[in-house]
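Figure 3 (text version): structure tokens given as input.
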């Protein structure tokens, strides 16, 4: 029997088979008739339930407290695609996001420095921009499922080292929350649980770049109920992810990648076997326990700097993207935090990422099959890197590359200035649409569904 187009029909059939027991195989004719009847019945049931389900959206909830959202969630709980509230056209029919219009000191003032919208933490800017023109945006906060609070905290670049100083982040966010909670009723009614923030830097929602301080400070009290979009993510318990969060990729400008790809096509010549460019301290110091993470890089340097197949560079170079595009394997070892923009750049430029960061939680697991497009090496095995990569090259490199070069994979990690189906902001919206149970509106009986098709 052909596999029905989705799990719904399959489920119905399985249930039927179960109910009636297995058909007797001795009587072929009877079996055939029974089988045909069963097929007919399951097909009609399938179309009937599909009809019911699709019409469920149109009918107002018959009972006070049974919200359509809940019933839809139950019916579709076994569906991977399409996810909740996601129509087949790839748009988010039922999702509504209200974007607070905050005074410019919270966001756009920072754009006077043009690095603000381009550097690796710029997803806070990119997501805001994309939402402003997105079809999910609503201007009526009463019909919103989620409330986006656009505060840019990563653009106060230090004049000394060029890194963003985020010491002001907590007070800036607190001030923004104070403003919205006094001017609008929405924060208070949900205690912020349907409000969305971006925290795109190291240890995101803890707002400190040193892990021990970040851990000691924890997530600011005011944000603890909210949804935080953050680059930081580990699979184990961590105080900086004790908040509802969505792991997002770091920001890399799609335009710069496009320029690189034009000169270095994905399937072009890759004359570098293993590439890494970045800080590798020869004598790492133990600064508040950060020692350990840098140690991995130091070990790579010590062990493989003499190996001609490894192209390891310790200094900044503006043209490094072309080096990635010329490489087969790109090392993505942890630095101060487990993640780095290398991961996105490697995927976007078709270089197989070699993830060396124990316990890292990667973004958009449902869209990006990380285990099929990257190589993971445990931190303790870093000394065996050459051996491990030789084996991958000999066995499954071409299948990894084929999946890696799939445009859908590469698109999922990039933020565009307008939401494009399948891009990073789109996946953020998809993640939000799976959290509709946090939506005050969706949990109300009086929820008005958007009925136009
Ligand atoms: C909800 O139910 C109550 C009583 O069961 C009824 O009085 C009320 O009008 C209902 N509200 C809506 C919005 O249907
Ligand atoms: C609806 O839910 C409220 C609590 O959420 C409950 O008090 C009320 O009895 C429920 N009404 C119906 C009609 O189930
Ligand atoms: C989803 O389907 C799988 C089999 O396809 C089944 O094992 C699982 O229990 C189902 N889950 C739910 C929530 O129905
Ligand atoms: C920016 O960071 C510096 C520390 O590097 C701090 O002194 C200054 O107050 C911050 N600026 C704002 C506007 O928060
Ligand atoms: C929300 O709660 C805060 C603190 O309890 C209060 O100061 C503020 O006025 C409330 N906002 C609204 C709109 O009622
Ligand atoms: C590194 O520093 C941390 C915190 O300062 C300390 O707990 C740890 O023992 C140090 N490790 C080594 C190897 O010196
Ligand atoms: C490559 O092959 C090895 C075994 O030969 C397997 O363990 C590994 O998961 C494969 N990797 C990918 C990304 O397919």
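Below: residues designed for each position.
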């Amino acid at each position: 029997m052909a596999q029905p187009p989705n799990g719904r029909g399959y489920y119905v059939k399985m249930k039927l088979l179960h109910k009636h027991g297995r058909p007797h195989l001795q009587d072929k004719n009877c079996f055939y008739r029974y089988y045909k009847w069963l097929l007919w019945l399951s097909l009609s049931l399938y179309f009937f339930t599909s009809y019911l389900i699709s019409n469920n959206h149109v009918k107002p909830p018959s009972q006070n407290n049974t919200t359509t959202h809940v019933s839809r969630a139950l019916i579709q709980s076994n569906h991977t695609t399409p996810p909740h509230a996601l129509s087949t056209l790839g748009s988010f029919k039922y999702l509504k996001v209200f974007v607070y219009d905050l005074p410019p000191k919270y966001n756009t003032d920072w754009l006077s420095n043009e690095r603000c919208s381009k550097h690796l933490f710029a997803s806070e800017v990119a997501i805001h921009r994309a939402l402003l023109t997105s079809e999910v945006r609503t201007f009526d906060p009463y019909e919103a499922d989620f409330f986006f609070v656009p505060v840019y905290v990563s653009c106060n670049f230090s004049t000394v080292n060029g890194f963003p100083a985020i010491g002001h982040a907590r007070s800036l966010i607190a001030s923004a929350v104070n403003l919205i909670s006094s001017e609008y009723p929405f924060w208070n009614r949900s205690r912020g649980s349907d409000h969305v923030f971006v925290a795109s830097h190291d240890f995101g929602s803890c707002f400190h770049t040193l892990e021990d301080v970040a851990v000691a400070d924890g997530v600011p009290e005011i944000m603890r109920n909210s949804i935080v979009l953050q680059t930081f993510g580990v699979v184990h318990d961590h105080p900086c992810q004790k908040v509802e969060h969505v792991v997002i990729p770091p920001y890399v400008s799609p335009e710069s990648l496009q320029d690189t790809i034009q000169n270095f096509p994905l399937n072009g010549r890759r004359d570098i076997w293993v590439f890494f460019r970045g800080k590798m301290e020869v004598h790492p110091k133990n600064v508040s326990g950060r020692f350990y993470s840098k140690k991995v890089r130091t070990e790579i340097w010590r062990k493989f700097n003499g190996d001609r197949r490894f192209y390891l560079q310790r200094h900044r170079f503006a043209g490094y993207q072309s080096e990635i595009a010329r490489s087969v394997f790109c090392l993505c070892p942890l630095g101060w935090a487990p993640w780095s923009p290398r991961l996105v750049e490697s995927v976007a430029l078709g270089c197989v990422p070699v993830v060396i960061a124990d316990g890292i939680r990667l973004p958009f697991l449902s869209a990006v099959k990380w285990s099929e497009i990257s190589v993971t090496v445990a931190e303790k095995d870093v000394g065996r890197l050459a051996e491990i990569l030789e084996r991958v090259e000999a066995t499954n490199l071409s299948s990894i590359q084929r999946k890696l070069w799939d445009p859908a994979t590469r698109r999922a990690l990039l933020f565009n200035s307008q939401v494009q189906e399948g891009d990073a902001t789109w996946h953020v919206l998809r993640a939000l649409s799976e959290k509709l149970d946090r939506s005050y509106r969706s949990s109300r009986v009086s929820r008005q569904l958007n009925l136009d098709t």
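DSSP finds 16 helices and ten strands in the chain.
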